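Reading a protein record of the kind used here takes only a little practice. The record below shows the convention in full.

——
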Amino acid sequence: MEPHSFEQDGTEYEVRFERTPEGWIAHIRPEGWTEAHVVAFPEGVGFDRDDVRGSLIAGCEAAVARLPRRAPTRH
C-alpha cells in the first residue's frame, strides 16, 4: 500500500503500511524524527471493506492524538 502523509497540530506525519497475516501495521513518523511509532490494526471490526486504506488512515490520524510528543525510545 502506498505511504500516506498528513498534518496535525502543525506537525507533518508520514505513514508507511505493512500487511501481516493478522492485519496491518502502521509506521507513523513525525517530520524530523528518525524513529517511528508503530501501531497495529488487527483484522476485524472497524475496517470499511470497500475502503481499507481510508480506514487505516483514519485510525492513524486518530492515534496521533494519543502518541507522545517526544521521540520514541528504542527497545
Q: What stands out?
A: The longest strand covers residues 11-20. Residues 4-64 form one domain.
